[in-house]
């Protein structure tokens, strides 16, 4: 959101005309189907990210083009199969991460953060979500450390890497099934823990609900939760905290 | 429903025979599989609309034919793929809207309403539902104004169009995910707001339940809700209110 | 929300100082615990209404006093027992409706609407919610017609009053248990129907969920739904539509 | 279950040896994968019916052969596609009802009941379930009367057939969406009403849950409910009551 | 519902005036808060029953008085504590059943049915609901046989009474917890089984949901279900079937 | 259940009359409200236990008396407040455990098992359920070892006692909130783990559902689950396994 | 988990260097995507089992190779179609069980247990889950006895095999729909009962939830529950108890 | 968790005896009912906090005493009424916050953080939870800024304070009903947003579920969620992030 008071001051001083003020207050490009938010980077520190689900390939290419014209880096999540080739054709320098359904266009490497984000996951089946988190954090400039397949049924696998995890500034913990790993990690570190429930499981896992509830009810302090399978959200938030 | 007291009066006066009275009380055509409601326009102001889900192509064509024989305008919703070609073959002047799964047969353009219906949607992924609402309202004679991709994470996109929205007599707000947009719009306008939750989202959106609950619990007054993805219902109701 | 463009113009012309503009942009009184919204009447056509649940008696009296100082009419909903006496002591001209948990302070009778709102309810047990809707609509200036205990298990009770209902411009239908009444009414009238599920029922009514789902899935067009037991919301919206 | 006291008496009298008694107590044929219940007709008045879901084609043919060897009539429900041809090849005199997924082998027409079962359904989309109920009742010997597409949004369609329905001894009412039809029918007849919720609907119908809850909470007395889409169960029970 | 065709005929013949016809079409007494349905006995074979929940003592006494003035027998269910004394004071010949929360006023003993209704319950804790069913059936004229505390964890307790149960024309089965008893009984009898889930249980019984689901999914044929704790509904339906 | 074949043999040999056989097949005492299962000890290794919820004090005393007359040891669970004094008055040698709502009457100390049952609980708030499990196992003859307040947020508290736990033959793990403890314990021991979710928690713990789902989805093998707060069930099963 | 105290002692005595101690504390092989737990057999009595869902074929082959290099027997569950051929190509002596989606590599036949595990299932449609349990128990060395298609609607089918079941040391009961079988079996045996709900059913079975709730609320003592369709978990636990 | 490698080194060097090492590895005091975690401050940066729900007054006082003996500052949450007086008697310098059910004992004021935490809440009814968050953060040393009653139905109330909020390093957003506020705030700031759903609402708010789902599905990036009404968890995490 533009700084209203600043614009008011500049209107008052005659520095801005009324029309110029209105344009600055708007801050988006209208494609008809989409209003691309060019103001987001100034407003909350990172460019708008494209949510791919439910968008046609043409819409995807147009939105990505609009963003790329202003912000040199663009990230698209949950890119649907039909949109992959059109996007890669339009943006040959974009990178596609199939397992995590991400497409990243990085023309300006951001200055890397000086501290790391740990990405811990409970089982190999949670890898696509964990990678979505890890790639997002890296894309936004946070170096990451991956500790994968460290579920609570074999605690020694986690404890072997606990010093590595403790050396990070933020910890992302990804788990499906009962979602117990964030509670155990949360009891062992003093960094903020971002818990990501995954839809891995069957039966009474209810597509990740069991893991989500487990994480929301964590008996460890310092843990917060994002949506089921929302690796992007965790990576985004981890980078934001890591850069504080 | 026929006017029972009027029919009673006319039976008493001899104007109607008992059989004629019985026929008038019935008011539908029986196709065996379906009882097509020819009385609905007189009863609640708009012709019966065909719900396409679960009906065979043959049933669809027969019902549509029955309605078209009496009412010049027919609307079919959620038309399943197998029924599209048979319907378009039988009614070459019908129009198919693929994204919204509507087929409209409009032989008599209704007198347009003198006020407008606003259709606001939160994200590009909500477009199919928003368009179902918009086309329905237009089909029934209400001019519409579309404000798309105006979600609450970039408020300036909504505020830029708020004067346009305020100029409408009824406002439809379509949103998935957390369904917050109707609350924000409801706080900014003094028109009735019809909220439509969509199934856009993932994880704990539970196919639109999160958006539905958000809208039912709206802290803004003047908001009511229709079923998840029920663009048709919103467009129908908006036109009804717009024509009061 | 104040008219930003108008304020900008007046700032530019020097009609407003920067500070005056900021005050006008604010539009609320800050009581510490509450920010009382004095701008709401201009913004959406009715004064702010006080939601009584979870507020202390002192907070209630202070908020009510702040609103009463600007807007002569004040409505409080879901007033908790402990707050009743303090409010009535502070505002002796206020009226308390115990069954519906409303307190109304009406110092200026609004010009009555020229059309009526019908309030139909399914059973005697739904009366408190129906009355909350009816009193709210009357408070805001819409005359109402009550048709109570007209549930679908005895259709003749409804049909006997159908002409009365059809003469109204908006219809509120209140029902618990299976919530079938709005579908039946919706098939018989051409006015907008606002359905209010109540928590009346037991067992698998789940505190009104059965009625809520029934209403959301209504096979009748022209029906929209508000939250369980939200008589206030229905009355508010009905008046808004009735005054269009 | 065999008559234990009778067998005891016959063992005591020497009429039965211990082994013969054990065989009679068993009352089923063991196919390894299935224990086919040959005793069911004597125990609860109708032969075992085969639930087709989750069974392989070979299992289906073997179970059907085992039942056909003792009971001349066999009914299979929810027959999966892969099993249809093998069954029809093995039992050329069987009849397949595709919409309702039934296969019936009727070698002995039962004496027809002297009273009728009404099968009422709300919409054309509910036909497959209604037909499953109707065919089951007919298979077991109850004549049926079908009143289809008589949903509550067009009450006159139901009222036109109410005398036909009242002439039946049992009434099955099939409905999806809000499931309101059984309440309305239940208020108009004095026969037992068996309500069948269907999974027809979308959004907050949750695959038939809304209709199920509506029916369980029916304000009309004399209504009971079977599982979602369980047309077979309704037809079976209707015949049982009809033959009392 | 009055016989519309008959009234039409009598209007045509001059036997009825228009006003008399309207009165007959109405068939209820309007108490303001309630529309007491005097037509129900003719329409569906039993007088209206008063649902006590959510009604004030005054309303209860008035409705009961209205019904008692026309129908000599009146039954009130779920009578709330505050209403018991006022009702018993107004109707000294009424009987109160505290455990089942029923009040019955029986001035005309109906001709008893010639066959019996079995009421089977799983545990002693289910007694209040079982008794509500049993008293209702007796009130309406069906003799009953009670088999209590016959849960499936001690099958011999059920089998000891199976001949008694089999001698009845209808069987009500009341169970909480896992609700397995109707499936077992349903496999042993050839009478219709009305299953009543109770809210007895704890933890994952969710107030009777586990029992309800168990009964809806019964693998035994011939079983239908009423709402949780709805003993009245089961008794009412059992009598209706028993009198066929 | 009595040994049917044995009784058959004895009937055949004339050792039993038909009446005697019938009596032996029954195996319960009928108190009217309850059928007390005197056969259970022979059938499944432990006397019937009285579920106190929903039973009147008089019923409790009568059932307890019936059981005590045959089986010297009696256990009652979830004893409601009103029943405590009457029971203790009738059975002065009974012991009441208020926190766990148990009353135990132990006149014959069973031969103790030679191996131990571990009862581990996550937090102090889970103590009432853990104690219900522990006292039940002790009552049935299994020595127990308690390791309390060993939740996963402070792993060292668990690891400090892991050797003690490993020395037991069966492990009961009681936890509320996210219910993660059974997964961690299950990964550290080779004994069967019985997980007991408790209703301790708030918000999205939903009365123990979060813990229940966590335990059902445990990534550790060798874990099974009982109902929420069902300490009795866990203690009973643990003793059964411990005595194998 | 390694014996920390033992390692401490050996470090103190100089028997272990610090590095050797660290290696022993780790106990897993890190494949990057997976940390294969080589310590599990010593820790909880059986080798790690591979959960096939969500793993790529390459990951499956690598994990299986890692385990096979240390532990001669490997079991993979829920093997996805794409992984079957690669695994069988890499391990030609592995056995694939298609219905149960298991692949077993058994190079060392374990010493068989001297007692048996009963696997009872309710219907033929439950066979895949029952077989998953049975094969798992056999793989781990427990002989099994199968009693299939013994649902509660035909009790005699169960009673005919009850002696066979009673002769086993542990009983697994597999059932879908209402899940009543474990309660009935639990009332007839004195062995521990492991209940496995299956997703067999339709409508309000909700993918196995009805069966799961039924089992959790079992009125029989000595019953515990594993996740929906978790045949593996039941077989694993049954073997563990059987070998106590 | 103690630094295992460091202890190993010190054991190896003889600096620690085996017993001393064991003590250091334990790190808690065992009160029988509770294992008080004295190691938590070193392990995750803040002393153990006492969860008051379900603990007896005596347990509360003992745990608080154990913690106070080592860590000078102690915080107890959800303190139940019965425990308040005993605690205040035992620790006269403790402070009780009734609305938020906290008791704080602060003997050492921590060095305040140099940046602020914003606590924003939607309505006055959310104050108890917002205050729980604010007091927790202050207790741990983070200065806070409160912006209360800034719900989305009156956006200007939020926008008036947006500069204040943007000046904070972390933002806590507390909201009930539809829980839309975090999405709107998240779109306006570049700080991490911790969303706290409250149980404020009625009907389909389901005790905070609607708000929880709304927050989990937030379309704004940088938002994570804690449990319903978990003000403590939000304040704890906010301080942790604020001190990074």
UniProtKB/TrEMBL annotation, chains A, B, C, D, E, F, G, H:
Gene Ontology MF, one: hydrolase activity
GO term, biological process aspect, one: 'de novo' IMP biosynthetic process
SMART domains to which the protein is assigned, alphabetical: AIRC
One Pfam family this sequence matches: AIRC
Domain of life: Bacteria
Domain PurE: 115-244
Family matches, as NCBIfam families: LarB
Protein name: 1-(5-phosphoribosyl)-5-amino-4-imidazole-carboxylate carboxylase
Natural source organism: Cerasicoccus arenae
């Amino acid at each position: 959101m533009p700084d209203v008071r600043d614009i008011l001051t500049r209107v008052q001083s005659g520095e801005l005309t009324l029309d110029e003020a209105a344009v600055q207050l708007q801050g988006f490009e209208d494609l008809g189907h989409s209003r691309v938010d060019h103001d987001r980077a100034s407003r909350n520190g990172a460019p708008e990210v494209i949510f791919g689900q439910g968008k046609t390939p043409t819409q995807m290419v147009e939105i990505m083009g609009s963003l790329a014209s202003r912000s040199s880096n663009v990230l698209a999540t949950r890119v649907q199969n039909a949109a992959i080739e059109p996007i890669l054709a339009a943006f040959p320098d974009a990178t596609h991460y199939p397992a995590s359904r991400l497409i990243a266009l990085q023309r300006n490497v951001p200055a890397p953060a000086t501290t790391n984000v740990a990405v811990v996951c409970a089982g190999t089946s949670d890898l696509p979500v964990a990678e979505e988190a890890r790639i997002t954090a890296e894309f936004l400039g946070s170096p990451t450390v991956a500790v994968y397949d460290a579920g609570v049924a074999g605690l020694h696998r986690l404890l072997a890497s606990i010093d590595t995890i403790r050396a990070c500034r933020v910890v992302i913990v990804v788990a499906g099934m009962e979602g117990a790993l964030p509670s155990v990690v949360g009891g062992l570190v003093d960094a903020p823990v971002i818990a990501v429930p995954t839809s891995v499981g069957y039966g009474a896992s209810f597509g990740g609900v069991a893991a989500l509830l487990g994480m929301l009810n964590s008996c460890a302090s310092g843990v917060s939760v994002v949506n089921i399978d929302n690796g992007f959200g965790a990576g985004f938030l981890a980078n934001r905290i890591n850069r504080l």
